[in-house]
Amino acid sequence: MKYMTSDEIREAYLKFFENKGHKRLPSASLIPDDPQLMFTVAGMVPFKPIFWGKTDPIYPRVTTCQKCVRTNDIENVGRTPRHHTFFEMLGNFSFGDYFKKEAIEWAWEFVTKVLEMPEEKLWVTIYEYDDESFEIWKSIGVPEYKIIRMGKEDNFWGPAGPTGPCGPCSEIHYDTGIEVPVKDGGTPNPGNTDGRFIEIWNLVFTEFYQNEEGKLHPLPRKNIDTGAGLERISAMMQGVLWNFDTDLFKPIIDAIQNVLNVKYKEDAKKDISIRVIADHVRAVTFMIADGVLPSNEGRGYVLRRVLRRALRHGALLGAKEPFLYKIVDSVVKKMGHVYPEIVEKQSFVETIIKAEEQKFITNLSRGLELVQKIVSTSGKISAEDAFKLYDTYGFPIDILRDIAQENNYELDEAGFEKYLQQQRERSRKAQGEVEFAQKTGYEMLDVETVFVGYDTMQSESTVLKIKKDNEFVEELEAEGMECELVLDITPFYAEKGGQVADRGTINWSNGRFEVEYVYNPVEGIIVHKGKLYGKIKVGEKILSAVDEKRRWTMRNHTATHLLHAALRKVLGTHVRQAGSLVEPERLRFDFTHYQALTKEEIGKIENIVNEVILQAIPVVTEVKSYDEAVKEGAMALFEEKYGDFVRVVKVADFSEELCGGTHVKNTGEIGLFKIISESAVSAGVRRIEAITGMNSLEYLRNRESILESLKERLEVPMSEISVKVEKIIEEKKALEKELASLKIKLINPETIASSSKSFEGINYLSFVFDSVEPEVLKDLTDDVSERIKGIVLLISKLEGKIVFTVKVPKELITTYNAGNIAKAVAKVLGGGGGGSPTFAQAGGKLQEKIPEALELFEKIIRREVQ
User: Fold this and answer.
1) Which helix (H) or strand (E) segment is 707 a member of?
2) Phi/psi of residue 803, nearest 5 degrees
3) Most C-beta atoms within 10 A of its C-beta, which of 266, 332, 366, 789?
4) pTM for this model (two decimals)
5) What is the band of 832 on the pLDDT scale with cuts at 50, 70, 90?
């Protein structure tokens, strides 16, 4: 059998099926347009709508090499020859075109003619009731004894999610020839051995749809979905048993050896860690390049889990500082010519990985120390300890599972899950109590409110329900009493999707109702909360009027969409919405990004948004099916739950998002867009606050007023304010330096030195000052220590804080350590700091504790405390 590289195999496969009339398509993103899936887990995922029959195919035959991520067997990665989190799936697909005969014949032709695998090495399996496939395999020359019938658990391919297309499958297996036990004592075959026969290609005959109840229904058209693992085929074609020994991994493992100064295949335990890192660095590189960022939920949590697992194995190999980001380059060099997105995003990927490494490495070290302490006394990891490591140090349970498995420790994983479930229940209860307070009673009502606020800010309607003090009443009379109304029709927008609720008034012949808040306690019911003036009853005909000035919140909502699009253009497509707040006065937008924006980037974003505003582009809203909207490219949030039909808000080709909020009619109504702040929210999430319309004008007027005031006080033209301020700052620095010099002259070091004490021949002193700056204190400490030839502690009380210095002569550092003394004193003073054995500087805030700190210093010198 000839040797082929992974690149040669990949290209040969795609070219083979191109010659069979297939359209070659690039790999889809690891982030699927599919609310059922977190990641693209198979080659067929991008084509699920076609398999479902919901979308017509553009091409009846397609071939791809799809990047995939799966983590369901992550604990096996590195320990077995063929488990991976990231892998490449070769596939050929037929959408209502050819079926079993062609799929089987072409698969056999490719493995025997193109790859030139020996036929004696190949076996096939089929679904036990699939006689049609049996006859096709037999007709192309496969001996009957080599066609193994298998049950549903092995040869029936389920949907890629809880529901979806499925069907029987047939697999091609390669016989490695290794000696393994045979379960039935007969001739070794794929059905009676483990590990000898390697499945290299799965042909799925997709002819059914599985619904939520698990029932199968015939699809409108029969389809072919095949998956051939590139890693596995590469191993067979390169004569190795382990995928990690192929050319796909060799350059990555070489990089690991160089970065961590380790050798592969010299130590079995270390080999596992090297393989884990090699696998995981591929996964995290591709996930981040496709827009996933570390977080504590969803895809971000999976990424963080994989990344931290790699870091833990790096620690086992001796890594004490960030290393994983250095290995990304080997992944890019090996795979970038096939997947250009990792070349484009390499610098960004390395930045994110390094930041995550720096964040976790300290916790990892502390956690590993705690694990050793725990098992050294008990030899096991209890549920309580496991949960503490998870909750306090961010240790994923699979890392603890690895540690327990490697060292034969007992791990109470079931107990850990109970602790975790209790935490979730507490969280749900806390959240549920709030929700219950809002939902009480409304979930039982058989009424519905129609929202007309997209088209009008006034409407006539009828009162359906009146609620006061958690009780529904037929009528109510009051002057300023708080209550709630449910109407059959309303123009009032209920708070959701980050947009605040409308306010306004409801009027009728006998009174009025001031609307202060609007919310959706349950789907289909809109509740108006506010104060009643007059008498109202169920069935009352009323007129609702939204506060139009507050409704201009829609300026900021549309601006949020434009900001989102501009951020993706300037920073990259990894940017995703992570939260938002839309109010009349401002907008707040949280987004995934791992570093602060530069002034230049903020300027570019403002320019892009304002250019779109100046064009006065119509803002178009349409209701479409979810699948149609996503197919057209509308932005959807993975965490959001969408129904079959969604509202799409579109601004030409610039922005398209799924959104239920209110928006302007054209971008020109937004007015000037101005970013007023940019800051961090959490690791990997940034926040921008911005203003529009009259708020932007008011903001600029305030700035102008400040500049005018400065101009008058500094008595310079506007253009020279900056120069004048710089001059004042320089003068201030010079005066401060002069003042510090004068303070030193006023302090007599000789007088201070005269207050020294002695213990067993060691001179020492402590002294407290008012308002002596740190620089002066340092110089004074050196001077006094030299005069008394001993240990010195000088404390200065500044406005609201304390600074102090400690000096220990070199000849005394075998007994005393300035850094340790400073840490002990700082702890008493409510602060921190440290330094070298000879000199340390620290601070605090508890000035009332200074006498206690001086007493502690005395005890340390006299060796009464350690």
Assistant:
1) helix 693-714
2) -125, 145
3) 332
4) 0.62
5) confident
Judged against a pLDDT cut of 50, whether residue 805 lies above it is answered with yes
Give the three-class secondary structure for 829.
Answer: coil
Q: Residue 792 to residues 758, 775, 798, 832: CA-CA distances in angstroms? A: 12, 16, 19, 18
Length of the chain: 866
- pLDDT at site 434: 38
CB 172 within 8 A of CB 148: no
Q: Say which amino acid occupies 1.
A: M
d(CA 635, CA 658): 6
Six-digit token string for 660: 């239920």
Least confident range of 94-98, 233-237, 418-422, 534-538: 418-422
Burial tier of 420 (Cβ tally within 10 Å: 0-12, 13-18, 19+) = middle
Are the CB atoms for 607 and 588 separated by under 8 Å? no
Q: Which string of DSSP letters, residue by residue, matches 687-699?
A: EEEEE-HHHHHHH
Strand order in the sheet with 587-592: 577-582, 587-592, 685-691, 674-682
Nearest residue to 325 (alpha-carbon basis) of 363, 347, 283, 354: 354
Query: Using one digit for the tens of pLDDT, what is the confidence trace for 428-448?
Result: 554 444 333 344 678 778 889
The tokens for 211 are 């619904």
pLDDT tens for each residue of 155-170: 998 775 677 778 999 9
Burial per residue of 6-43, b for 16 or more beta-carbon CB atoms within 10 angstroms, e otherwise: bbebbebbbebbeeeebeebebbbbbbbbeebbbbbbb
Confidence of residue 866 (pLDDT cuts 50, 70, 90): low
Q: What is the largest CA-CA distance in the chain?
A: 108
Residue 166 to residue 207: CA distance in whole angstroms: 6
Q: Which residues have CB under 8 Å from 90's CB, separation 6+? A: 10, 13, 14, 43, 63, 64, 65, 227, 228, 229, 230, 233
Range from 408-422, 735-749, 809-823 carrying the lowest mean pLDDT: 735-749
Q: Of 155, 225, 217, 159, which is closest to residue 191 (Cα–Cα)?
A: 155
CA 364 to chain centre: 19
424: phi then psi, degrees, rounded to nearest 5: -65, -40
Give the SS3 label for residue 670: helix
Q: How many other CB atoms are found less than 10 A from the CB of residue 675?
A: 18
C-alpha R_g of the chain: 35
Residue 645 CA, distance from chain mean position: 27
**Mind listing the pLDDT tens digit for each residue in 289-300?**
988 888 877 888
The CA-atom distances, in angstroms, between 124 and each of 7, 121, 174, 466, 720 are: 26, 10, 9, 70, 84
| The pLDDT of residue 837 | 92
Q: Strands 458-468, 450-451: parallel, antiparallel or unpaired by DSSP? A: unpaired
- The answer to whether 561 touches 554, Cβ cutoff 8 Å, is no
User: SS3 letters for 154-181?
Assistant: HHEECCCCCCEEEEEEEEEEEECCCCCC
Sign (positive or negative) of CA dihedral 522, 527, 530, 536? negative
Cα-flanking dihedrals φ and ψ of residue 750, to 5°? -65, -40
What's the CA gap between 686 and 572, in Å, rounded?
Answer: 14
pLDDT at 669: 95
Share of the chain residues as helix, strand and coil, in percent rounded to the nearest 5: 45, 25, 30
Pick left, alpha or beta for residue 96 (phi over 0 → left; psi -120 to 50 → alpha; otherwise beta): left
Phi, psi of 779 (to 5 degrees): -60, -40
User: Distance between CA 296 and CA 573 in Å, rounded?
Assistant: 21
d(CA 808, CA 861): 11
Q: Which residues contact 68 (CB under 8 A, 6 or more apart)?
A: 30, 39, 40, 41, 42, 43, 86, 87, 88, 89
- Backbone phi and psi for residue 782, each to the nearest 5 degrees, phi listed first: -60, -45
DSSP symbol at 500: P
